[in-house]
């Protein structure tokens, strides 16, 4: 690989802190952070936390003129939770039972 390619790969590799505090959401162990500072990290953060905590529901988002949202879980149906949240906040997106992502025009609060 040339140096440009190596530098590009290094910029994309960001360490995600997986030692987080949990709460409860609809009777499920959950991590919720709707104020991620870097919207580019939302997807990677949701996946990293899902993989580190297979027994939890992960809900992360960032507001950038619209609210980006990702829901992930190995135990619970992520798309079902995502769809329920998006319906409340006029959002769109898609995914599957392990990961769903999209955005809402309204600011999301849970």
Tell me about this structure.
This protein is 29% helix and 31% strand. The protein has helices at 3-12, 42-52, 78-88; strands at 23-25, 28-33, 57-63, 67-73, 91-95, 99-104. It has a 6-stranded mixed beta sheet with strand order 1-2-3-4-6-5, sandwiched between helices. Strand 2 (28-33), helix 2 (42-52) and strand 3 form a beta-alpha-beta unit. It is globular and about 30 Å long. The chain starts with a helix and ends in a 6-residue tail after the last strand.
Give the structure's gist in a few sentences.
This protein is of the alpha+beta class and 110 residues long. 29% of the residues lie in helices and 31% in strands.
Strand content: 25-35%
Shape: globular
Distance between the termini: 45 Å
- Backbone structural class: alpha+beta
Topology of helices and strands:
Layout (H helix, E strand, L loop, with lengths): L2 H10 L10 E3 L2 E6 L8 H11 L4 E7 L3 E7 L4 H11 L2 E5 L3 E6 L6
Parallel strand pairs: 2-3
Antiparallel strand pairs: 1-2, 3-4, 4-6, 5-6
Features:
single chain, about 110 residues, alpha+beta, six-stranded mixed sheet, globular
């Amino acid at each position: 690989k040339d140096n440009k390619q190596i530098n590009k790969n290094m910029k994309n590799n960001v360490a995600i802190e997986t030692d987080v505090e949990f709460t409860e959401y609809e009777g499920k162990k959950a991590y919720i952070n709707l104020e991620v500072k870097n919207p580019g990290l939302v997807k990677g953060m949701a996946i990293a936390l899902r993989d580190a905590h297979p027994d939890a529901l992960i809900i992360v988002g960032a507001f950038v003129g619209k609210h980006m949202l990702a829901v992930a879980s190995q135990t619970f149906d992520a798309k079902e939770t995502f769809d329920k949240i998006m319906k409340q906040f006029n959002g769109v997106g898609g995914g599957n039972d392990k990961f769903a992502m999209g955005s809402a025009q309204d600011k999301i609060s849970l």
